[in-house]
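Hello again,

I reread your note about wanting to compare the complex against the isolated chains. To keep things tidy I'm splitting this into two emails, and this first one only covers the full assembly. Below are the input lines as submitted, including protein chains and any nucleic acid or small-molecule components. They are followed by the predicted structure of everything together. The single-chain runs will come separately.
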Amino acid sequence: MSHERNNARLHRRKVLAAAGSAALLPLLPSYSGAAAPLERPKRLLLVFHPNGLEDGWQPAGTDLSSLSPMLQPLSPVASKLCIVKGLKGGIKNEVMGHPQGMQSLWTGARIESDSAFSTVPSIDQLAAPHLSQGLPFQSLELGVLSSTTPHSNTSGMLVDAAGAPLQAEQSPLAVYRRVFASVAGDPVALEQARAQRKSVLDFAVGRLPRIRAAYGSEDQPKLDAYESGIRQLEARLTRLEEGNCQSTFDEAQAQGIDAARDINVAELAALQRSLLIDAFTCDLTRVASFQLLNSTSNAVLPTDMLTGGMHGTYHSGTTEQKLAINRFFVQQMALLLQELDEVKLDDGRSLLDDTLVIWGTEMATGNHLNTPLPFILAGSSALPLGQQLDLTSQQLRHTRLLCSVLHLLGLTDVAAVGQWTDAGSVGALPELMS
Amino acid sequence: MPPDPGPTPSPTNPAVTASWDSPLRRLTRSELNRTLGAVFGQDMQVAGRLPSDESVGPFLANASSPPTQSLIDGWFAIVQEVAAAQAARAAEWTGCDTSTADCRGQLVERLGARAFRRPLLPEEGTELVGLWSNAAAASGETVGLSRFVEALLMSPDFVFHVEVGDGAAQTESGDVALTSAELGARLAYSLTGAPPDEALLAKVFDGSIQQSTALASEVQRLWQLPDASERLGEFHRGWLGLYGLELLFKDPALYPQFQTPSAIQAALADEVPRFASYVLQQGGARVESLFSAPWGFVNEDLAKVYGLEGVTGSELRPFSLPANQRAGLLTSAAFLAAHGHPDRSNPVGRGVVILRNVLCQSLGDPPEGVDTSLEPVAEGKTQRDRLATHATQPACAGCHRLIDPFGLAFEHYDALGVYREVEYESDTAINANVTVALGDVLLDGEYEGALELSRKLGESDLVRACLSRQWLTFLLGRALRESDEALLSDVAERLVESGRIDQLVLDLTTSRQFRAKTVEQEAP
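Full-complex prediction:
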């Protein structure tokens, strides 16, 4: 990524802030001037890969200046990491099922049945109205080979504020067209289009009363969500300023890549990363997630070690093969963090510095254990960076970490995340709230 | 929170507090493609980038969750593209000069009725013409037309299967008859996955679709259409758990044809839909045929799986299969491969899908905290040996004494469904003899492997009762309710007599459940 591109992006961001987001300014500390050491993170990014990390991934000491062999790809950003060690996941027992792991990871839900979806919102969706207030998108959910047909509780992990399963978009082309394609164009045409689309969407919403009157209480939430979704869309169309933000995404290139084929996994991940970074740089949203594969994905990953698919290898592969899968995941995460760190802002700080990244996975290792669930935080200086926090002896649930993340983002009135009510599950972690 | 919570429950608006048997469903991705295709007379494959569909039972239907913001945004992105593309080729489908008021009025009425699957209300027509004219005046003819199209395709009447019902026709028992347009749409989508065609619309417009004989004759006509083949394929994909075969993975060390994305995946995905729709549309539609036919649709890639010589080309065509190896759907490569591990068979997975989907037996999940991993695959240890652990563990035995026999009967078929006499992993001759003890008089007993078991399933009343449940779920796109039980036991009995699935579907589509929506209970 070149500096020229970064500067161009930043310029567009500033135009946006000046032209369209005046109401937001009190919430947004300026990028210029000295950075306060414990400045509140502006953005939240959830990152996921499935099936945990094999034993030995954790660095030996509390100081991250020396990383484990598995985490070596993260060396360039080691000083911006914080590892949280020893938390347990969202089930009662030791063995974590795929549905339970996925549905509880970001929500803290208690999932009793293999067929249940969480209806508890995930933390990104709890943070979105606060962080992305007034921005075009409340949040973006990017996936890489994350989808299944039908949608399932082992492929999805996020839940929106209405309790609906929120799927990641695994097609970079779809993300691009949704997020960026409507922004370009000449000013006069855009202005006309905006007015016309308002009447288009008003017509659509105008159909609702007749339908509402004919349906019962179980169906009203669908119509509520539809209406509020249309209104959000309408608000976005009237807010976007012409030409304020463009992605360098290559639409033609993306058209040639099948977003469902594992042979393209690295290429798809690169495209999704670039869209994510563009969306952050242009300040289109401040909440995003990046989901690599899903809990039972059998994608074949590009490593020499593998003959089988990802999930199958965890059940019947060798240790070396499992480690090869882990290395691929860590490399992907390292690329994402490094690219976020390469986008420099006015004051020399990076996009990563202003973002709270939480990297999690739905089970401890491929062996389905509930404890210790791996979590790596990154970015914001509000975190105890460069350290590994060992919480093993306290036997706490990961919901404490989820709650801490919300507190760090300024949602300090959140008493607990999810459905667990025992002391080990409720409230923020003091170790993170210094 | 939504800006407007909508109408509040009140004595004058009883619907809002009531719970109906038919939930409001959003179009599936496939329905969106085919509805757009019908509206514009052009094949459309645009819905693939929307979020995946949800399921009801084993079938695709969007009946439960509210739409997410990303769904609505994605829908809008598609709608913008479709509208722009269709406006650019207006001359090919509008049939009149779109700058004239007459033409706009006609198109609003015609396209509106197609997109909403009902005639437009007068005020809707007026608003659309106004919106179109304003946009055309400001930005030109093409833009005007595309804004009109956008308004139609973003409306909830396009996005959802809206069934308001004919309030005047409400019965004392709480049934509200569907309007003719709604009944026509329900019929067309349930049997063809697409909106009504011209012939059905004629019966909708004159109201004759409400008469039982006309409804029955439409069911029989639609059943034979090419669109119905697709839809029958969708039933069998869901019923037998065959989603995702297009992306199936098998260990390329054992199955070199999986080294690169290859044609065999497409053939596996189409094999069962082709076979089942042939049996149901042209082959007598008998339940037994599905479980006993010693033939299938095969191409060059599948011929290698089935051990057939001399089959060439990529097109699937009907061929006889070795009668001592194959009998219907459950011995198809598609079924066995979908329910096989990447590198070995999968007796538990196969047993579970047969019990749950084919016999409608409810199975719980493994109890919390039970380690479900079996001892590793090793020489001399057969799958049967490994599964024997289940019998010794009280936490496992309850369900696995039911599940495991239905899977072990299929041990002659490997990860891809290739027939074998010897289990590769253990190098042991295969024993596929099983004892079924479901508590069903007709089905319980000893079986020498999959062929005998499959043929018996084809004769089973339990399977017929289950098929009745699955078909009603599929046709209505909703979970079954207590109030459906009387209908289900009635149609299952008739299916036992007739043995014909086309008869079953006729019984279901002419039922009260299909023709009306019903108040189930007052919500608290």
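For quick reference: Residues 1-37 of chain A have pLDDT under 50 and may be disordered.

B.
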